[in-house]
User: What shape does this take?
Amino acid sequence: MLRAHLLTFTTCSHLHHTQVVRNGKLEKQTEMVRPRTKVDLQEDFEAIDGENIRCLVCPLAPVYPNRKVEQHRATAVHTRNRSRSLQELSTTSARRSAAEEARRERGPSPAPLPVYDDDADPFDEEPPPVRAYPMARSQFDRGWDAMGDRNEALWDLGAQTEEERRMIAELEGQMANANRIDDDGDFWPWPDRGTYLLSLLVFCPRSPLSRTITEGVLAFARAVQRYEIPTYSAFRSATESIRRSNPSADSVEFKGSAGNMLFYNSISSGIARDFGNLRIRNHMHFYSRKADYKKELRDGDTMAESPSRQPMVTLLDGTHAYLDEPLALTNDRATVPRLWYTDANDVVKGRGPSVRIRPSVNGQPMHAVVDANESIDFVLSEVTRGSLLAANLKDLTLFDENGQKMSQHHKLRTCAKGKKTYSVPLLVWEDDWRGTLGVGNYSHTSVLYSNAFLDRVDLDRRSSSVRFFSTSASATPEELFDAFVKEVNTFHGEPFFVWDERENDTVLIRPWVLAVLGDTVMLNQLSSSIGVQGNLPCRICDGGGGTRSFKYSADGVLSAMKEGPLRTSDEIVRKLEKQLDLAQDDKTQELLTEWTTSGIKDVSTTDACTILLETNDKLRGKVPRASGARAPRNALSPQEIQNRLAPLRASLMVDTWHSPLHRIIDFGGLQHTPVDILHVASLGAGKYLAKLTD
Assistant: This one.
């Protein structure tokens, strides 16, 4: 019978030696083992076993192999969670869960039932001592005390004297009015339960309360003496403190052109949540689709024709190809891709004009020219990187269809630094809300947006696909939309990186506006349209219209159905500048006529025109010097008036003097402000048309 004794030891991290004693002889066995990665756990990780480590600060307590710990620690999500306090961490994180488990009250340990003497008389025993409840009790205790069936047990009859009952009643009354100190800390970031409940009431989206009603609510709450009731100033102070110390750093303070202060959540944070959520990220479609049908936003022409369309695609060898960069194809073909798209089978393809190689002639060196007469559609497998043509394209000068020299490197390639790039289209929605206490009461405006990479079924069924930007009861719709437009334009020139949960890497994001949504009134205001009050009522084109009597006739209704020339933002801005010219020249009647005939009237431009007209009246001596004075001001000469109005007009045009809709970079135009179907189908035929043709 063989007997073996094993003696095991390790001489280095890669060799594992085993000594085996067989039949009195010592045999040595050596085998290679996988070296273990040395990990610095610090305070944000804990070891599970020799191979896996758990993150303590990120949601859902993710587990990673040793070799991926440093990669996860470098992510922005982990860095942000690591800097947060215990109360700021997600409730699903390991550290927060452990703290709450330790804080949770434990029940009494199991104990055997007491043994009673059958011959003992319970009435001869001393009554149990009265249990003094703490001054601050839980909601369960208060509900238990309020139950009506809590009669005394038979053996407690006569156990309490009248004086003791009075003392207990007085004690319970004090407990009912006591401060609820046991709730402090459970309503973070609000300081206490009362302030938290007041915020739910005051900031209700459908009926926000004014200061007068808020103070009335506080007076009522103090009268009934329930929870801690803050004063109005304390409530406002807590609200401002929370806004300014938001741990997520998503809230941005913005001052509008009218002087109103508002707060908004950055677009970058909303897009980062989309790419960090696999339930949303897995349903994104990055390329426009070319098929015989149109079912989704990606099937339309806008996604394919926008200057901000998806600029990059990943080739089969893992490299990145960008638009407007020459590519060599099989069969000695070359092209400059102008569009990445998918067919009906979701196969990614490219499309672009052909590129011709011109030999050296008359001293002009060899160069490449874009041939706009020939278009090439190709699949990614046809792209070659190692051919002679591909090598020549890198060294040749490239000229476009108009003979202009082209750059062979997309500007986003430099910004991406080797990472993938996504140009994210956004659907923006703005409208005003009314309270439930009557039409026109407590109105406020909100701006929301969605990721247009998602199909309709995901946009309709997933509430998480709708992102909140800002809301305000004091700021104008133009101020809210101006904040959105300025951030989009900033990100157009300065794209940002987010974590892509599916790619497990950071990606470069550049958002752009695909469409602006809202009701007819709001979109007319943003589009600088006077609406049905003008001769040209359509905000998108100059079709139909006419005088009031003509529009109310049958021919006027038919004329409104005809399409006219599309309005462009450049044309609208030129007409708005003309309105400023009329106001500067004190031509009030001509300005009113311009509004009606052109159908263009902007809120911000109208305010600027009003300032110019009022200043004109003062400088022309039409306004008295002071209130109650009879003598008018001394009129200035026309040249002196223009000398004073010119700098005033320049100051009015420094920042926002017309709708921010006309300043969106790469926006497709007013045709991308679709008509609200509610106003067309329901209100259009059922209300407005019936009233006009009555």
